[in-house]
Amino acid sequence: MRIIFYFLITFLFSLFILRKSRLTEVLATSILLSIGIAGTIPFLLKEYLSINYGFTSQYLFFVTLIFLIAAMIFKRDKRWNIDLLEKPNAVEILLCVVMLLFLIRSIPLPIRGWDSYSLYDLRAKIFLSEEKLSVTKSFSDYDNYNPSYYYSYPPMTSVFHAMVYISNFQSPMFVYFLLYYSVIFYVYLIVSRLKINRIFKFGFFAVSCFFPLLVEQMWVAYTNLPFLAFQLAAIYYLLKYFSNKNSYFILISAVFGTFSSWTRTLDVNYIGLMIATFVVIFFTRKKNFFRKSLLFVGYLLILLSLRWVWFSYVNSSIGGIGETMPGFMEFLTKVPGAFLLTNIVDVAMFVSFSLGTLKYYLLLFGLAFLFHLRGAGTFKLGKGSILLIYIATNFLLSILGTFYFSQTFYWWDKIGGSFLRSSLYLVIFVPLYASLILEGKGEVGNNKLTGTR
Amino acid sequence: MVVTITRMKSKILDKLPLPLIIGLLFLSNLLYLLSVFREATQIHFFSVLRGTFASLTILSYPFYVASFTALLSQLGKDRKYKITVIFVILLGVLVIIANTGLYALEVAHYPNYVFSRVGVYLPALMGYSNFQVIMLLSGVLFYFARKKNTPELLSKPIVVLGVVIILISYQIFIDLPKSLLKEYYFYGKKFFVSTNEVKKLSDLGKFSDKMDFIIGNTEPDSVIIHPTQSNEFATVGNQPLIRYVLYPRTLVSDSRKDEFFLKYGDTKMNLYSIIAPSEWGDLQFYPKDNIEAEDLKILFDNGHVSTYTNLKYTEEFAKKEYPFLIGIIRWSR
Questions:
Q1: B314-332 per-position pLDDT tens digit
Q2: Phi-psi region of B223 (alpha: psi -120 to 50; beta: other; left: phi over 0)
Q3: Does the pLDDT of residue A15 top 60, yes or no?
Q4: Which positions in chain A touch B201 (Cβ < 8 Å)?
Q5: 3-state SS, residue A68
């Protein structure tokens, strides 16, 4: 009951800040906002102010209630309008009905996946017994492996697991289902507004949402799906800002970006997001330079805030998590050493074997990029370019990261499955990129930018 | 650029003689069939060449498409060409249907079913059938591009991206039912699962029974010594994994127990050791040392529990009791 009440307030809040948007958009945003808030605030309150999880779970809705009241006070148009939602169309209603059916199904499902037992859900149990994360420090004292294992990921999923357990649910798996649905909603929102043939719309939608590996993430409690959902939301609001020029969409994008960092700190996708946002802010708006800079600094402050909180927390409790998070200089010194011919061959084999499942997505990306290049005679920034920057930066960085790993850890070539799961963003973003290129017929300057609102 | 290549290609392709085309088609199909029936055809006999062989099959693909398009471009010449085209298309469709069917068969039974029964290596068949899809699609495209005399068709984003989208959709069409059904079977072929089934850690087999037994026989503040993590003791030795169930009990890995005793040897505590047979590899038992047991309990596969009191545990004892799931010793101190 408590959860439903909490979700309703978040829903109202999203409704209020988005104003006259689609039902799917409000739903997806409120799902992600409620998960994000439930996964951060209780932990921060416990660790820094010693407020119990039980207490926070009772009054968490206050947080969103405060947001809601603030949104109502600072509402952007001065008159109250009744039609806050656009009338949902048949597809949206169908999506919601199917969602409800699967939601009911997913409520009793048990936690699955080895890492989710031994790391994410174990931490939830610790939080549930009202302990701080620092009790785990003594855990590995009498074990040969896994030093500082419990600090290897930030606690987003663990904290919302704990919140779900406190609210008398047997298992938090339905949250993963909701996350998958929010991915579907955002992809639907982007694709449905394109001006291309309906069959193609469906094709792109299916290809980016129904890839088996992505669907399977819904049944295991890994961090990849929440991470992806937050990243997609961040990109969605970046695109919305691009066509809408309303500064506060950038801030929403930053909030989702920081939530994604609170889920997985080691993934490099936030850099892609940062660069894409930088380009969007500084190369499109007609505002003066000062205001642009102010906006970007504000964006960075929000985007990097939870990363900074996590790293300073880890450093103060166990003094760093070792070589998986290298300093920039260390990275620079190690990577050039990795470019020996034998190592290049090894890394290339590793990447091609691990990403074998995604080969057609890479093909799609390559072909779309060729068409993009062909149309790029007169350079003008379009939505396609934003996605291109995001995808290309992340892909290149992940390859560089593999080089770094190959020089640092002897077990680097044993984690192909994990590398594949970290590359799942390709499944969602490459078809979206291709669909945007197709809409612009490959010509960047001719992009009919999807009008939102 | 694409257009120039297409024009150049079509000039060469117009002159390709039929026997050569059929030869190329035969050769590339043969390579694929060999990789699909790799066990039946004793491919492992020349296993050193396997890498070369795999790359050969991939390299043969452009020739395959080229010969097919050559066939199409000379379609009007002779009846023989028509018959070959129909044959190639039929073969392609057959392979795609076979792939779809065999995947469905595998889903309906158990993983590796098709390979163990029919000897067909499914990943290779998937590649084979994907190539057939590409071949048919590009053949059809090429045919229309020539017929309407618009080679530009091949350089249109809608066509090229469309082909890739169809290809991925086909892959999803084959793969998604497999993972959906796997999920469906996982919960005993039920769409709605009852809450009773939830408590079992269903993807770890007997693990949850074993751990329930340990929980039932130890106090929350007890100290438990467990095997060192290794391939032989993959789950019971994995401290983070068993901690998930045994928290808040203190866990000590066998290789570190001396260190533990050095520090807490004199402290009063409830001390336990897990008794476990190895999970993989050669049969061995943990613990190897002799332990004075105040209390010793063994859980068997059928749920039966044997209890002993004031006994000296030896490895021989564990050997005698085998097969059992797990046991727990309460140290006499």
A1: 888 888 888 888 999 998 8
A2: beta
A3: yes
A4: 110-111, 117
A5: helix
